[in-house]
Write the structure tokens for this entry.
Amino acid sequence: MKKKIFVTLTAAAVLAYWLLFSGISAEDLKRFLEAFGIWAPLAYIAVFTVLPAFFFPVAVLALAGGLLFGFWNGALYTFLGAVLNCSLMFWLARSAGRRLVETWILKHFSGKGTDILTRLSGREGFFFLVLLRLIPAVPYNLINYAYGLSGMPYKTYILASVIGIIPGTFVFINIGDKALDVSSPGFWLAVGLLLLLLAVTTWMGKRVFPNQTNGDHEHEQSEK
């Protein structure tokens, strides 16, 4: 019964998502939220809480937040929405949808799926999560579901998530705030900060997890 309810609600949510939000841009989302007037901040937080669960790109949401609310308010609302979404997806994976999500992750990562899920529960899990949150190229949505399947306690998970979310939030909100004038020095400075974040997190990954990097390289060589 529990599984049927979960599947029904998921199907209804996916349908609503495709009808209302599929394929929209940050500017489209901004116009949608503006219609809520004084309730726009609450609508934005609610949208940020729910949509990433269906793999809507969080970068688009953050850019819309910067466009609509400016830097400081946009950062605050985005942070609140991201924390709520992290919690939602974590508990979805850990409860009713655990088997469905686990099957998807194992299939998505092929032979590495089991190893990844094991490492998330180990001593490296906390620092690994902080690092993953910092790297814009890593799918935010997949991180939430994957850690829901790990043995990490929720308090540890949400603390690491909060630490890792903050830098990326400021970077993307800053780009959205400056996007109205792409010829301004402020916009290009915002883009430069994004590139800096990518460079720093790449360096951090190699420093914190050197064995993983070397292991992947040796595995590729052995396959050849």
The chain has a mean pLDDT of 76. Residues 42 and 77 are 8 Å apart (CA to CA). The two ends are 49 Å apart (CA to CA). Residues 25-223 form one domain.
